[in-house]
Amino acid sequence: MKAIGFRQSLPITETDSFIEFDTDKPVPSGRQLLVKIAAASVNPVDYKVRRNSAKDQPLPAPKIIGWDAYGVVEAVGDTASLFQPGDAVYYAGDIRKPGSNAEYQLVDERIVGKAPQRLSPAEAAAIPLTALTAWELLFDRMGIGERDKGKTILIIGGAGGVGSIAIQLAKKIAGLTVIATASRPESAEWCRKMGADVVVDHANLVEAVRAAGFQNIDFIVDLVDLIRYWEPMAELIVPQGRIGSISDPAEGVDIRKLKGKSVSFHWELMFTRASFETPDMQAQHEILTKVAALLDEGTLLPTLTETLPGLTAANFKKAHQQLESGRTIGKIVVQY
To answer: Where in the chain are the domains?
Structure first.
């Protein structure tokens, strides 16, 4: 099969930052599915892994990354029971395993969902990682539920991939008043399209939120930079409120800032369930099933903003360059 990968962690502008190569088509076993991939999206985790996996010396074999895919099941392992050949599926995969930047991929059926029927392959491929991340963060980690309807949430980084879904889930499923951050007119407009009630500039976050009429916020999620926004979040959060984050701080923060208000803090990493094969690993299959239904009924909107045609190194280079700029709105997909 054809695949796109890398042997060294190089700047994306370098010729060999991605290479095209042929490798053996994998064979499923156990609960694995063999999926023929039709489209894959890119996420910040992609370029972080590309930058850091082979900094010191070249890898013996090219590393295939990519953690978002839409495809069709071609074969199943001997104990698989949730899917059969011919099923159209979507999933975000397992960071420990070869990724979706290839013609075929093996994936555990417990972290796979049947794809939404009303979406195109590219639109479906843009959803899994961000939807799982946002759903787990809001509902599994922070515990937002029916009793919280009408409360406020501040989403820092509303126009990105996770923010685009988090706004929709917070507004349409949780019934919260959503304040999202954006710094450009086009990203602010995107947040409003996704359902944000209010959009503020994150440059002076405390002042912007209070100028918008909110003294304190019930829930805050950081999707950008925990260190940069730690002090503003500690200031804005309501007593006994909840803060969640997915960002990767290079250094620690003073969690004592939250003690006076008895505020709880929640990490979310979408790969935790698959990486540790937790007893509730199949929750991701269930989440993706629910999200597909919400997309098919029109409750949730697709977040795709750009499609690059062709399984080529050039397309993944282009997608990574755009992500690394930090100015991407919604999701970018490479369609095979």
So the answer is: 2-127+277-335, 134-267
pLDDT at 7: 97
Residue pointed to by tokens 């507004």: 171
Looking at CATH, the fold of the domain delimited by 2-127+277-335 is given as: Quinone Oxidoreductase; Chain A, domain 1 (3.90.180)
Q: What integer pLDDT is reported at residue 331 of this predicted model?
A: 97
The CATH code for residues 134-267 is 3.40.50.720
What's the pLDDT tens digit per position in 101-147? 999 999 999 999 999 999 999 999 999 999 999 999 999 999 999 99
Virtual CA dihedral for 54, 58, 59, 63, nearest 10 degrees? Answer: 60
CA 11-161-102 angle, to 5 degrees, is 55
Model confidence at 56: pLDDT above 90: no
Query: Does the pTM of the predicted model rise above 0.85?
Result: yes
* Residue type at position 55: K
Its sign, for the CA torsion 102, 108, 113, 114, is positive
Taking CB atoms within 8 Å and a gap of at least 24, the contacts of 251-258 are 251/227, 253/226, 253/227, 254/230, 257/230, 257/231, 258/234
CA distances from 232 to 4, 153, 241, 275, 296 (A): 41, 14, 14, 33, 38
Dihedral of CA 246/247/250/256: which sign? Answer: negative
Nearest to 113 by CA among 277, 275, 291, 271: 291
The string of pLDDT tens digits covering residues 203-213 is 999 999 999 99
- Provide the pLDDT for residue 105: 98
Decide if 247 contacts 230 (C-beta within 8 A): no
CA dihedral sign, ordered 321, 323, 327, 333: positive
Q: pLDDT tens, 165-209?
A: 999 999 999 999 999 999 999 999 999 999 999 999 999 999 999
What are the b/e assignments for 294-320, b being 16+ CB within 10 Å? bbeeeebbbbbbbbbeebbbebbbbbb
Tell me how far apart the alpha carbons of residues 225 and 138 are, in angstroms, rounded to a whole number: 18
